Amino acid sequence: MRNLQEPVLNLPWKTVQSGDVVNPVINAVRFIPYQDLVLAGATDSAAAKCFNIKTGSLVENFTRLSKSCYTLDVSLDGQMAAMGDGTGAVHFETINYTS
Fold this sequence. Notes:
Number of domains: 1
Number of helices: 0
Order of helices and strands: EEEEEEEEE
Oligomer: single chain
Structural class: mainly beta
Largest sheet: 4 strands, antiparallel
Low-confidence stretches: none
Strand order of the largest sheet: 3-4-5-6
Strand content: 35-45%
Helix content: under 10%
Mean pLDDT: 87
Radius of gyration: 14 Å
């Protein structure tokens, strides 16, 4: 049985200069098919990020999004992502990180 008091994996969004972890409101999360990755979109200047779900490490910070990321989705083959930001723009990104 799993311990419901502790998450299996906790992915910190960013660490500020004091060493404190700052986690914004997360608006959207999607697992990427066929890869050990998860995309997350948030109400933050760093609006969308990709994490490795096995190691917890940051794979990519999507810097083209402005303001917040309110929605995101991943193609069925796990190759592309679409992300909607606070300016009303939709961004398309290649997310195939396999070698």
